[in-house]
Amino acid sequence: YSDHISLKLDLDRLKDPTNPDFNLYLMDLSYFSGKLEMYFRYQDFNFRRVEPMLTELAEIKKETGTSQVPLVLDNKRGEWLRDTTYIIQHMEKEYSHVSILPKCPVQSFFSFLLEDFADEYMWRPAMYYRWEPTYDAKSISSRFTYEFCDAPGIQKCVPKQLYAPVLLFRQWMFSVFGEGIEDEEQHDIVKSQYLVVLDTLQGILEGTPFLFGSHPTLVDFAFMGPFFRHFSSDSTPRKIMQQNAPAVFEWVARMWNCKYHQLSSTSFHSSSKAGSLPPSWDNLFPLVSEYMDYLHQNAMAWKSKKTSFEFAFKGGRPQGKNCLVQTVEYRVWCRIELQRRFNEIQSKDEEAGTKIESLLKKHDCWEALWRDGRVECPPELGVEPPFCKPSGGSGMVDSPKWPLEPLLWRYIKTKVLPSIFIALAFLPIAYLLFTTFVID
After folding, report:
1. Mean pLDDT in the chain?
2. How far from 137 is each of 7, 33, 236, CA to CA, in Å?
3. What DSSP element (H or E) covers 92?
4. Per-residue pLDDT reduced to its tens digit, 92-150
5. What is the four-CA torsion angle of 191, 221, 100, 45, rounded to 10 degrees?
6. What is the 3-state secondary structure (H, E, C) of 105-144?
7. How far is CA 37 from CA 33, 207, 251, 279, in A?
8. What's the pLDDT tens digit per position in 180-201?
9. Which site in 78, 110, 188, 284 is 20 to 30 Å from 164, CA atoms measured?
């Protein structure tokens, strides 16, 4: 698990700046790290790329309150930044060379909506395709031990060969069992979500280099979360993409190689008129509508202090199937932000607000967005993103979007205890068989 070449970069060839404006802390495997790194490359920022090890992240958490990457250290201002959505908004306001946000308020709202959809609702199929296929899961968990895992404290006594299978089980429990994906239909639905989005993006990208027209916009960077470090990198979804959606595969590479000053034209040409959306996006909106329903039910579960709830996922199919999923506090915040963004646009431009409402109703997204009103939720870490608050306490690495304990107890109750009870029930029978039949 340690040699001189595996997954190592030649630092002399990276040409890192001597005095970077930003340090970008990331994991090469990470969903959101890929999204943010793509944006930093496109803007051609003066940044240093840092892949911290586990012990380094524990120290970073003391300064930031979190060990969740990506994180940005702004060396100009001496401040830490977190959460890709808000880091990009901050960079657009303070440092960007060219804006990736549409000027039209209607298109801007739907760009943020699709960013939220790509960040939060495409997470499920992306993690499923990483941790359910045996080949992918073994490969990724092994890679994790090479790139990230240096054990602190007493954990140094644990053989490193045990890290990969433990990590694999942990991630499978969060990404498959924790998403309520157990029977054949539930598996088919989550696979369908990837395939529907893949086919839709293929149709868009056969006619235009980027999702909104001639240049990358926020929507392109949003879909880089699932499509760069997951779908185009992990073996099983990559094979599907290469065979079924070559234009999507090419687009991912185009985005990685793209810098704003290398585009042939400085003026952006949209694939739809101001105040409207490209018709080629229509097939995405049944899933976006489903996401709006999910956000509402998640908010209601969080308000009721439930750690889990049942939701009928469809994945672009006519009929859904209930899955027991974990309640995610951060997604309550996501819903508030969508409501806030609409209200902000409407207060400044009533005509744009009316158009947004009309389009949301057309795509069956409006009612769920406002159902049961606004459910208030504090920001993560107790401070508005993208800013951080030093913890000054434990350097333990964070759990994912929901706590481990309720999910682990749910697994024990539904999977472990029944097996133990069956074994205990079988013991008397086994004893009778063993004592009754004696073989000479």
Report:
1. 91
2. 17, 19, 10
3. helix 84-94
4. 999 999 999 999 999 999 999 999 999 999 999 999 999 999 999 999 999 988 888 77
5. 180
6. HHHHHHHHHHHHHHHHHCHHHHHHHHHCCHHHHHHHHHHH
7. 6, 26, 16, 30
8. 999 999 999 999 999 999 999 9
9. 188
